[in-house]
């Protein structure tokens, strides 16, 4: 498949549906983090070709840091999924809106990606969306 939009839709669907399934499971936040991390590892190991070329220690260390940050995010995500008295549609939507804002800013700071007018408008709309969702 050569169209990245299809991958965007698939990733958005998968990332959007798993919190609903996670809440439905009635697992604790810690259990959700462990089970989801384990299942992610199983799915990732299906592509064993990634282990053929061993990367440098530096690359592995940075990848490990990314994994630690992902694990922390997953733990907090699990807490939000199980937050009693709160709508999952509100909380997870706010998290999902914050992600592109962080990526745009991080892309600029780390990779010197340009912040275009469209990206600026997108961040502004994201902030408005967070405000609207948080006041529901």
Quick overview of this protein structure:
This protein is mainly α and 136 residues long.
Textual characterization of the structure:
The chain is mainly α. Helix content is 78%, strand content 0%. It is built from five helices and no strands. α2 packs across α3 (57-81) and α4 runs antiparallel to α5. It is globular. 7% of the residues are buried. The mean pLDDT is 89.
Blueprint (SSEs and pairs):
Blueprint: H1 4-25, H2 29-45, H3 57-81, H4 88-111, H5 117-134
Helix pairs in contact: 2-3, 4-5
CA gyration radius, whole angstroms: 17 Å
| Large-scale geometry | globular
Task: Kindly state the number of beta strands.
Answer: 0
Mean pLDDT: 89
Largest sheet: none
SS content category: mainly alpha
Low-confidence stretches: none
Please report which band the strand proportion falls in: under 5%, 5-15%, 15-25%, 25-35%, 35-45% or over 45%.
under 5%
Order of helices and strands: HHHHH
Helical content band: over 70%
CA distance, first residue to last residue: 39 Å
Our count of helices gives 5
Question: Which tags fit this structure?
Answer:
5 helices; mainly alpha; 136 residues
